[in-house]
Amino acid sequence: MLLRRLTFPALLGLLLCAPPARAALNVVTTTEDLATLVREVGGDQVKVTALAKGYQDPHHAEAKPSFILKLYRADLLVLVGRGLEIGWLPPLLQQSRNARIQPGRDGYLDASLGVRILELPVGQVSRAMGDVHPQGNPHYWLDPANGRRMAKSIEQRLTRLSPGQAKHFAARYADFDRRLAAAEARWDAAMAPYRGTRVVTYHRSWPNFCERFGLDVVGFVEPRPGIPPSPRHTLTLIQEIKRQQIPLILVEPYFDLKTPKAVARETGAKVLVMPPSVGGEKEIKTYIQLFDHNLDLLLAALGAPERVGR
Amino acid sequence: MLRFPAVAGRSHSGPDVCRHVVPLLALMTLFLPPTVHGEQDDPSPIEALRAELAALKAEYAQRLAALEARLQALEATNTATGDGTVPPPTTSVTGPAGTLPVYGASTLSSKVFNPDVAVVGDFLGFASDSSGDSGEPAFEMHEVELSLQAVVDPFARADFFLAFSPEEGVEIEEGFISFPALPGGFAFKAGKMRAAFGKVNVTHNHYLPWADRPLVTRSLVGGGEGISDGGVSLSRLIPNPLFFLEATAEAYRGETADFVSTRIEDLTYVGRLRAYGDLSDSTNLDLGGSIAYGHNDAGFKTRLIGADATFRYRPLRRAIYRRFLARTELVWSQREEAEAVRDAFGWYAMAEYQLARRWFAGLRYGRSQHSRSPGPADEEASVLLTFRPSEFSQIRGQWRRTELGDGQQVNEGLLQFLFSIGAHGAHPF
Known about the structure:
heterodimer; A: alpha/beta; Rossmann fold; 4-stranded parallel β-sheet; B: Porin; 5 helices
């Protein structure tokens, strides 16, 4: 009798006892931007996987079990933080069965620590404001100065996890820093004549980018963060664009173009689909290419004869 | 104690400042435009000015008192922390310097260790063409769910879901401790839980794609509440290069509609194997098999076997506008009784399609026999339309047609308002 009662649990126990798989220094990042920065610093000493694709809305990625599998094998998880992944990362972390990457452990790196965060709410935050991020705007990677800071904290964390490779990581960081500085000089020079250009953006994805390159964001297609365009707000926006003669509407590739296009038809402004992430377009494979691509788009849309040099 | 004289001294500065304010204001009145002087023979403006001055004086005294109180409080905290700096709020929880490494962590120092709190309201409106004996009220605050979730210590987390409803009163829907990262890829849970039998059974009401639960789970899998019981759960990932594979084994005390234990050693066992694979970036397939095995209220055994399959489509570039989900769940029940073995079978199939960013349409069809009295199967069909103003609220209409095994037909309309406040929950998958 007892034997019969135990067969079922015993069978299940047997099923549960296959040995786990192990890899070397395995890094999982939530976005492709982080993945490319880890690659810049880690080189061939790391194996990097990004969960969300560059062309999808990182707020609305899904907690797919295939991601659990990736996190299960990870030695380091790098995330954007500031609530960007709040809808999908916590359940993945809880189900990852990986103690190394839990919050507070060395394998958990919130890349937003140490960067410059904009739009930190002052005073009481309420959902009446839409889907606000109480911890500041999470699209901070769109300022190259923040990219440098993120690379630095990645370098420090990789070094802590794999001290033997400290020199390798330091050298690669120094190289990235040098290349980024050179690129920044190009970008600043090319954008200098267009500083102060007023733009409208779909979502609040671009405050760091616009601050860095001197664009002035005067409105949003969304009436409130995360709330789709409403007719009344769109009418106000059209009037505002006409009044201020705003030349550009920046739209992330994962948003519907219907409203921005309608606004453009009414006002004569140009709709510019600008990917905020590496991987947003096939040819954007590195952090520096992300800015090259977007600034080229901007310059072309503003009628500039030159492009950011490569 | 040393601070008292300083504070006391400052408390005199209140009237002092006011004394300066009075001549200053008097001086200012001299420089007012001549029209004011022209009206000087009329005494009432002077009276008015005096009154204003007095009011101003009182206001300043009040403000100063308030400021002093704040100063005093600040000084008190400064002496407590020693160096006079405000301590970084969450470092003690998370280790690394900075403020925000843990999702849901509060930034007010008094609340650092408070759990994430959320309340979900589920309000139902109900209409039916049957002759009023369905027992469903026209309007009902069907359920209020309070969730409290936090990390317990470096090894465990705790999740509590308390459900308040007119029928059940206050009930622990779930309340368990979990050790999510045990060696060897194991995860362990203990407490009151929804058993890992199929898809619907583990899902809380507000995450269901319908306003009700399907016929088959109501008839065969633990009634309206499902299999939710006190017990332990052990699960493990089975790593393989092809797909996600997870095995779960659970043991419960046996106190649900279909599994009732009268002796301490008669436990209810639940086992589940789930396989998931991405077919492409936008499509995936999720397959599962479940068994449940335990004693029933007749004192004999009941066995349940379940199979489920889910297909999801969600184009990543348009992920916030378009998605499609199709799912089916099949359940076989075998219930032993004193004089008979009763076999019953039921299933449902559903589809949900996202029409626009905030609009979802759904269909569900199902048939099921009853575990206790297998006869002709009941049959149901539903059509649904859901509007989600934001991630935190939704309005859902459901039309449901049920044809009972005895031939009786009922048409019902359900209107559901779901709304949540508090911590940002994860999106259901």
